[in-house]
Amino acid sequence: MARKKKLVVLTGAGISAESGISTFRDSNGLWENHSIDEVATPQGWQKNPGLVLEFYNQRRAQLAEVVPNQGHTILKDFEKYFDVTIITQNVDNLHERAGSNDIIHLHGELTKARSSVSASMVYEIGTKPIKLGDKCKKGSQLRPHIVWFGESVPMIEIASEMTAMADILIIVGTSMQVYPAAGLIDCVGKNVPIYIIDPNKPNVSLRSNMTFIEEMGSVGLKQLFDKLTKK
Predict the structure, then answer these.
(1) In angstroms, rounded to a whole number, what is the distance separating the alpha carbons of residues 39 and 22?
(2) Which segments within 106-197 are labelled E, that is strand?
């Protein structure tokens, strides 16, 4: 039996937006009326942990109200034909809920909490809130298991290794402006086909092996699925 080709997919906020999840920032540079500095930096956490916890508690509550969309389910369907690894910048669990099996979360996971003194002490919390006074086993306040701006991205090395193994790379729903995730495109072999799906063409260096599909994630993925799985 022939080896399945390695399909690596980098997903961003655009794919989850179709499920009703707000993208990271709107045109005013805000996220749900909060500045990034207030809710997505270690400094914001130190300044006002209550605000940060409430912000992510609201995101978690929103997550309980939404479901995976067709884009997520198509990525699951790709597994019938390819060895699929999804590298996501999203902190939601919609890829998991759609049934995808190999997912790397670059920026953390909303459904987990972790110790504020030990990044290795991680707890599954689902969509429950984290409150001031909720502590880890070491007695320190729990914080969202989110990689904030200014923090290292622990999974980027594994993501880079996976991307370097790709026979095909799909990029969907990301502006390719947030690093180090945006740099993953440079890890693929020079002859590896790259498909970029987004209504707005991201600002990336053009290559001969690059194809743009200027559609929403679900529409573009359906077109690409039909193309790549034709016998």
Answers:
(1) 15
(2) 108-115, 122-124, 142-146, 168-172, 194-197
Residue of 72, 95, 105, 107 with catalytic role: 107
Specify the fold of 1-21+69-107+153-231.
Rossmann fold (3.40.50)
| Largest distance between two CA atoms of the chain | 58
- Contacts of residue 71, defined as CB under 8 A and 6 or more positions apart, other chains included, come to 15, 18, 172, 173, 216, 217, 218, 221
pLDDT (tens digit per residue) in 12-51: 999 999 998 876 554 555 566 778 889 999 999 999 999 9
Domain ranges within the chain, ordered by starting residue: 1-21+69-107+153-231, 22-65+110-146
Q: Is residue 107 annotated as a catalytic residue, yes or no? A: yes
pLDDT digits (tens, 9 = 90+) for 128-148: 999 999 999 999 999 999 999
**Distance (Å, whole) CA 18 – CA 27:** 18
Instruction: For tokens 């909490």, name the residue.
Output: 113
Which helix (H) or strand (E) is 160 found in, with range? helix 156-164
CATH of 22-65+110-146, one of 3.30.1600.10, 3.90.1150.10, 3.10.180.10, 3.60.21.10: 3.30.1600.10
